[in-house]
Design goal:
By secondary structure, the chain is of the alpha/beta class. The chain contains six helices and 13 strands. Bound molecules: 1-O-pyrophosphono-5-O-phosphono-alpha-D-ribofuranose (PRP), uracil and magnesium ion. GO terms for molecular function: GTP binding; magnesium ion binding; uracil phosphoribosyltransferase activity.
């Protein structure tokens, strides 16, 4: 099941705060980062661990260590940058692979303008970051880029998703799991999520 709606009270409360119409840039940015961290907790709960023995204050002690594939976070420019700090606070050694895509306002198709993957990206678990999953075009393009680069384990974190984008993901990439804080009602006739958050990039960067 690729779609995980994370219904933790802290997440639901914070998403509610993000929907207030006159929220400040500062508040929106802080909340985006906090919700991203909480989603990370859920999205990494199945990472493999191994037991190792270390020297503790009272002698040898057996502890758990994360093993296996390392992570690359993949913020989708611009708005995905607003989630990056929250995720890196929990996974400070993650590499960052940047994907620059914007959505053409008329066609709603993603337009690519920058891609810089970390080295050996194919050996890492990719964690895509974007606040909004609307038609799904941007996510599909990002998954295609990661799969072309050899990634076999791909996950995504989104603050708000529309049913249209989730249907597309389930159909085209059932192997990719996404963790979302809210699944909203629909898209409006210009491709915005309703009730949604408005334009997340503009709110994070203070543009418009
Ligand atoms: O699912 P889709 O229909 O493709 O739409 C979602 C995309 O649209 C927004 O980006 P936008 O194009 O506004 O770019 P920005 O982050 O630079 O504001 C959003 O952050 C997603 O990347
Ligand atoms: O509702 C939406 C849809 C796409 N991008 C946004 O920022 N918001
Ligand atoms: Mg935008």
């Amino acid at each position: 099941m690729p779609v995980h709606l994370v219904k933790h009270p802290l997440i639901q409360h914070k998403i509610g705060l993000m929907r207030v119409h006159d929220i400040s840039t500062k508040q929106f940015r802080e909340l985006a980062s906090e919700v991203a961290a909480l989603l990370t907790y859920e999205a990494t709960k199945d990472l493999e661990t191994e037991t190792i023995t270390i020297k503790g204050w009272a002698g040898d002690v057996v502890v758990e260590n994360i093993k296996g594939k390392k992570i690359t976070v993949v913020p989708i420019l611009r708005a995905g940058l607003g989630m990056m700090d929250g995720v890196l606070n929990l996974i400070p050694s993650a590499r960052v692979s940047v994907v620059g895509l914007y959505r053409n306002e008329e066609t709603l198709e993603p337009v690519r303008y920058y891609v810089k993957m970390t080295s050996n990206v194919q050996d890492r678990i990719a964690l895509i970051l974007d606040p909004m999953l609307a038609t799904g075009g941007t996510l599909m393009a990002t998954i295609d880029l990661l799969k072309e680069a050899g990634c076999t384990q791909i996950r995504g974190l989104f603050l708000v998703a529309a049913p249209e984008g989730l249907d597309r993901l389930t159909k085209d990439h059932p192997d990719v799991d996404v963790y979302v804080a809210a699944i909203d009602e629909k898209l409006n006739d210009i491709g915005y999520i309703i009730p949604g958050l408005g334009d997340a990039g503009d709110k994070i960067f203070g543009t418009k």
